[in-house]
Amino acid sequence: MSDQHWVRNGDTFTFTWPECRYKLVLDQIREHSDDTFAEITVLHDPAPAGTRGHIHWTKLNLISTVTREKLAKYLGERTQARNGFWTSALEEVCSLTVEEFRKGESFVDLADGIAPKEVAYLLKPLLPLNETTALFADGDSCKGWIALAVGLSLSLQRVCLPGIAEPGRASRVLYLDWESTYEENQRRLMMLSRGLQLQERPRGIVHRRMTRSLADDINLIRRWVSEHKIELVIFDSAIPATGGEAKETAPVAALNQALRLLPCTRLVLGHVSKATAATTGQRGRMYGNVMYENLARSVWEVRSDTEVLPYQIGLFHTKVNMGMKAKPFGVLLQFNDAMGSAWFEGASLADMPTVAEHMKPSTRIRQLLLRFGELTSEQLQQRLPDMTVEAIKKQCGRMPDIQNMSVDLRGPGIRASYRVITGQKE
After folding, report:
1. Where is 54: in which H helix or E strand?
2. What is residue 38's three-state secondary structure?
């Protein structure tokens, strides 16, 4: 067996014997109780002209001597390999595959190497590098448009969604779609491309329609991501990707395990919980088990008003495991029906009353002061009709980055004027 070569791509193992001109591919490896199973494909290598080179395909218990011997006998009858070749080959292939499959990641001392000074991003502030980010919203909230604009930004290495930083490099993107179709995403990409004044749709965003759960398809997806050097995978959306009861912990944990097997950055789209969809002044929650948010390293909520044109959209950073939360930002989604185009423009959340009412009172006050520079408590109340003047004063008094310009005149009924102290920690 000295001429054996092997390579691992994800959890797919390929073994070749150039001198004997055979190839074995082991895929769909699963451990059940005390057994380890895999699908094994035996091929001629190279394939004879006009054929796939197929010899045999079966499911094999890798740690069973009896099943290995049966397969070795069958292959000996089907091929012209030397006597005992398949017995030795299968013994070595199966033992090495199981050993590598169970090996997992290396043990590394945290004192080794140079520690990064700051969080690395594929796309700041939305996508921490090689981590899972969740972005959730109510239905018809443009999260699919946002995800496609994120992918387009990476593909073109330019900002297509105001509020994000320019990507450091062009990246390939994979869009796994459980909800929509190739044609719908193709149409949206065409509209966004026209909105950017591009002559044709850029390449680099690959779409795949999904029907099975991610855990069931992870071997194929993992291999494809590695082979095509994908740097971002978008999952639309979390519930069908889970493939099970979204409110149960086990299916969500299985989804997270599958996500972590992908050697790239992940963006998971989700829906907002019905109980929090209409809340005012507080954050929403992602629909389903709490582990959807707990296992993501960064979580963004999208609130939008699609009853007006252009669509008004706010993005709010509700959770982060690394550093501080990013500031919320607003965008407008513009459409030109005559040109068949669409594009995003930056906008102030202070100009989006329907979107802004879902923000925390402190965030709403800060957004107004950042826009107008300085406002009295009465002027703030005119723009925040659901809050009283006294509630606004009380809230401003708790905000370290807000300065009361009439500090000596505090008290009930006394006019107060506020501004944001630049550079002050919120």
Report:
1. strand 54-61
2. strand
Backbone angles phi, psi at 40, to 5 degrees: -125, 130
- Burial bucket for residue 123 (CB in 10 Å: 0-12, 13-18, 19+): buried
**CA neighbor of 120 nearest in space, from 297, 316, 292:** 297
Q: Give the sheet arrangement for strand 12-17, strand by strand.
A: 5-9, 12-17, 22-32, 35-44, 54-61
Per-residue confidence at 186, pLDDT binned at 50, 70, 90? very high
* Span 116-174, pLDDT tens digits: 989 999 999 999 999 999 999 988 899 999 999 999 999 999 999 999 999 999 999 99
Summarize pLDDT for 210-243 with one digit per residue, the tens: 999 999 999 999 999 999 999 999 999 999 999 9
Q: How far is Cα 322 from Cα 199, in angstroms, rounded to an integer? A: 39
CA nearest to 288, candidates 321, 257, 327, 244: 244
Indicate the DSSP class of residue 113: S
By the 8 A CB rule, do 369 and 377 touch? Answer: no
pLDDT digits (tens, 9 = 90+) for 195-210: 999 999 999 999 999 9
Token reading at 343: 């594009």
The neighbouring-strand residues paired with 158 are: none
Q: DSSP per residue over 229-295, as a string?
A: TEEEEEEE-HHHHH-S-TTSHHHHHHHHHHHHTSSSEEEEEEEB-HHHHT-SSS---BSS-THHHHS
Q: Rounded CA gap, 1 and 186, in Å?
A: 50
Whole-number Å distance between alpha carbons of 88 and 111? 43
How far apart are the C-alpha atoms of 383 and 351, rounded to whole Å?
A: 10
* Strand-pair category, 417-420 with 402-404: antiparallel
Q: How far apart are CA 412 and CA 192, in angstroms?
A: 52
